[in-house]
Write a structure and sequence with these properties.
four-stranded antiparallel sheet; Neuraminidase; 1 helix; five-stranded antiparallel sheet; globular
């Protein structure tokens, strides 16, 4: 397996999200250009990372980043200093295509191992604490995860057309099929976010964003138009949420009720930086992982 240092090269773009106006001030109608932004970690900052598609943040400011070329998850402290790497050793914790990462409420790290069709929970020193496969849970086509505040884990299984709920040991608690799959069998979960007593489910097929209760029941359809290829979602503590739409290369900001606040194509040095995923930091900012793409025609 190839190794690398903690050299970083794709982009993390931070948008202040402490208040809706803070985000709207950055997305004021002209394409947001982040050239020359400070790398301090504050709103508007840019940090660089090579080959990453997703990052997650813990309550204490630590972060985890998927290095997909290396089948590893890299951990950093609150100042961005490297701490450890998960899944890079032989044995039960070896990863085969990590696809998603999330911090549990206790600070441990959940990783979706796409090639292994399982999720693992790691201590920050790399010890394996839970393995869904070893716990007897069957994941057919897992694509996203979200950690609940009660220690459980939600898993979006696209092939099963369901959202699964696992306990801290990785054992299945319940499987919840997407509503409407009988009439629309192409419906499948694409991305998840958990905040308070609400689970946000991004649905593919006819794209939408739904709000679910922690009992696994749909309570509202928040967004059912304008999305083309939604790929990632993150929610703040007050219920506002951000969606990365790779179909339109936009980051979209919504109120807790689903009202669109802003939609913008991030730019780096004047070029469109294609958004790949979004996460919420411990300070409540929205961080977007981007891969700089060609400038779109006017």
């Amino acid at each position: 397996m190839r190794r690398r240092s903690f050299l970083r090269s794709s982009s993390f773009v931070a948008f202040a999200a402490a208040a809706p106006s803070a985000f709207l001030a950055a997305c004021d109608g002209s394409a947001l250009d982040l050239a020359g932004a400070s790398p301090s970690g504050s709103g508007g900052a840019v940090a660089l990372t090579l080959g990453s598609v997703e990052r997650a943040f813990a309550a204490d400011g630590a972060s985890a980043e998927i290095a997909f070329e290396l089948d590893e998850v890299l951990l950093f402290d609150a100042e961005g200093r490297p701490l450890s790497s998960l899944g890079n050793a032989e044995g039960p914790g070896a990863l085969n295509g990590p696809r998603a990462v999330a911090f549990a409420a206790d600070g441990t790290v959940w990783v979706l191992d796409g090639g292994g069709h399982r999720v693992l929970r790691f201590a920050r020193d790399g010890a394996v604490l839970a393995d869904s496969a070893a716990a007897g849970s069957t994941l057919i086509g897992p694509v996203a995860i979200a950690a609940g505040g009660d220690g459980t884990l939600w898993v979006a299984d696209a092939l099963a057309g369901a959202v699964l709920r696992l306990n801290a040991s990785g054992a299945l608690i319940a499987s919840h099929e997407l509503p409407g799959r009988v009439a629309e069998p192409e419906r499948h979960p694409r991305a998840l976010a958990a905040s308070g007593d609400r689970l946000f489910v991004v649905v593919g097929g006819r794209p939408s964003v739904e709000a679910w209760s922690l009992a696994g029941e749909r309570v509202a359809v928040l967004v059912d138009d304008a999305l083309v290829l939604p790929a990632s979602i993150a929610a703040t503590r007050d219920g506002r949420f951000f969606v990365v739409d790779r179909g339109t290369w936009t980051l979209r900001s919504y109120s807790a009720g689903g009202r669109l606040l802003a939609a913008e194509q991030p730019r780096l040095d004047g070029r469109v930086a294609v958004p790949l995923s979004v996460a919420i930091t411990s300070e409540g900012d929205a961080w977007v992982v981007t891969s700089e793409g060609p400038t779109l025609p006017a």
